[in-house]
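Issue: copy button drops trailing tokens. Both records pasted manually instead:
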Amino acid sequence: MSYQYTLKEEKSLVKIFDCIISGFEVGKNVTSELTTLQETAHLKGFRKGKTPIKVIEEMYFGKVFFDVVNKQASECISAITKEKNYKLASQPKVELDTDASMPADRNVANIKDLKMAVTLELLPEIKDVDLSKIDIQKYSLKVEDSDIEGEIKRLALGHAIKEDKGSDAVVQDGDIAIIDATGYLDGKEFDGGKVVNHSLHIGSKSFIDGFESGLIGKQCGETVTLDLAFPENYHMQDIAGKKTQFIVKILNVLTTTPPAMNDDFAKKFGFNTIEEFRNDVKKSLAENYENTYMVRQKADVFDKLQPLLTFDVPHSMLHKHDDKHTHDDSHEHHHSEKEISSVRLSIFLMDYAEKHKLEVTKSDFTQYIDAMARMYGQNPQMIYSMYENNQEMQQNAYNILFENKIFEHIYDAIPTSPEMLTKEIFDQKLKEKAE
């Protein structure tokens, strides 16, 4: 072996080794590199391969010497990490003792043993965490027959038989009103507040409170002014809770007759019988509720997980964290417990993913895009190509999916029996979590 190393100093996750690399070995490698250069060099005044070795040494000795030293140092670091089974948190630091190690001249024969200090910063060793210490409540949905019927009715809307009620028709609950509408905030139109020739099913609650009920009893051709307010927990933060006015023109009114609930209707959704369809709706309803609640527990679970993590955090990772948050100079190296906990959580999640072999697959990504397309009523292919052309967007999506996958695995592993709730009570729990 061309090197020896001894542990000189250690504190927390930092280990400092003294390494000695054999001068004979370095000399052998420098000679071999210089010989290769002699064979390939094409220097002015000399034919290819005929430059005297003295000229090659004069020109390239310094560069070749340092290349060889770097290579030998890397091999020494690899040997240490492999033998000690270290996982590095950052790039190793190598300091050459120049007084003891630098050759006096450009003569290979005078290369001495090299002395260097190698500083390694390690990732902490992470013990398994007792997830039963995370105190959360899980819920399951007790699906009633009426919930299933309500959901099937909602799905049936798209397959209802529609008939024009005529030019003097009045809007009633259950009708479809074809409308043009423009929304105003403080007298100004706002982004996303306009619809043209839109089919609105009265009673579907697809628009904010008071919108659909405000059209009941109004006549085809009429223009209606609705003074309303956005809910406090509206998904668009900047308009949540604000008063708004909508000017709505009723262009047409259609009656809807729901289709008969039979096997033929079930076939429209890819099922053989209405019974199969009902069972699938029951299962989907329960899953949707439980998954929505799970997602809303994420911050809570991570908050309760953090105090269970007690390992040291690599210093370099806190500095990486610094780059994302600009501090004034006085706080530059002062890290709050909150920051340290946040980095500690990230390290734990990465380690957890590795131990449980969790990764984001192509099909996870496809499902994510399809769900997004449904949510925004877009063509999935269009959203795909948007992501294909933007590396950063793609990376962000993978990061979100990866964190969610790890979280779901941890959540499922928290041992607690779910409490059965009716849809009404579950809705209340979801509302509380959202707030």
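Record 2 (pasted manually too):
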Amino acid sequence: MLSGDVKVIMDDESYFSLDGSNFYENYYFSHESMDVADNVKFKFVGKFTAKVLVWIAISEKGMSKVFISKSKNAVNAEIYLNECIKKRLVKFINKYHKEDIYVFWPDLASSHYAHTTLEEFKRLNIKVVPKDSNPPNVPQLRPIEKFWAILKIDVYKDVWTAKTIPELIKRITLKLKSLRPNLSQNLMKGLKTKVRNAEDNGVLLVKI
């Protein structure tokens, strides 16, 4: 799937809630005493909690400008094309990969492979992994999943919560700026070897 000289660009979206209730590390807590206030023991979560959508692209050379938007639904093809691809991904490619042989590897979200999206990729000359070659549900081969985990740990550190969407967006933006240098490069390192191992031995034997 990936030859030695090909640079991989990967993008993804993730959701951040005001209180981090959608982050796995905030699901549970433990305490030695049963004398704990009810507002700590019980956390009531609304069916449609306020949250923001965050999009970013990464490669072994760095990360793109981020797109953050208040959202309750998955990003549609129009927003994906205008906000993520045209305004951010194209600039990222031109800055870091203009002279490279590269491939853009999105996940299998419907907006990423909509007809209008594929036509725009073709018009913009963005080389994208074909849908039938894109493996579903394989986090071992998507280091951007680890990127989200690291960012969310920073955002919700010490059980931090936001009271408003602007406060949450400010926190996410701040934590993105303070991520350790070369994080995306280190995460993407060895990806092509993992892909080859998955092709030869199956994805279950590939470490995350």
